[in-house]
Design brief:
single chain; transmembrane; membrane
Length: 158
């Protein structure tokens, strides 16, 4: 089984009804640069997630056990960021569904993150700061994905 066949099987789970909608190849260098910036931002978000797990582990080893919400949030956000990385990979290849999912989640994730960050005492101060940084990264990704040139490139009827 080729890599493309494996990816198409994964796409069936993530894409829904729009799994066969594809836009023409992206030749615009500005769009390619925008996708590079998105990938870098997602990489930074991934590193932020890994560092959050590292900090929680280190603090636990120092005898300051972190509460369960810290561990859950760290692992979940790391997984969600990985999913966005997959969506960006597929969207760059022209899959409309991946672009649409990225646009949606790039705004939903920071909203949820900011709501949880606002709950007093739920997370330690370092985790709240990490959440604010994550939200800023995701909002930046969302803004890049909604620029007029990006929306024009990913029209469903293209």
């Amino acid at each position: 089984m080729s890599l493309n066949e494996v990816l198409l099987r994964v796409d069936r789970l993530a894409a829904g009804r729009q799994r066969d909608v594809r836009v023409p190849a992206i030749a615009d260098p500005t769009l390619r640069r925008d996708w590079l910036v998105v990938r870098v931002l997602l990489g930074v978000a991934m590193m932020l997630g890994v560092s959050a797990i590292g900090i929680a582990f280190w603090l636990t080893m120092q005898g300051m056990a972190e509460p369960l919400p810290v561990w859950m949030r760290s692992v979940v956000v790391l997984g969600l960021t990985g999913g966005l990385g997959y969506f960006s990979f597929r969207a760059e290849q022209g899959w409309y569904w991946a672009y649409a999912r990225m646009r949606m989640f790039a705004f939903i994730f920071p909203c949820v993150t900011l709501v949880f960050a606002a709950v007093p005492g739920l997370y330690p101060a370092w985790m709240t700061l990490e959440q604010l940084a994550f939200a800023a990264l995701m909002l930046t990704v969302g803004v890049l994905l909604t620029t007029p040139r990006m929306r024009a490139a990913y029209r469903r009827d293209a």
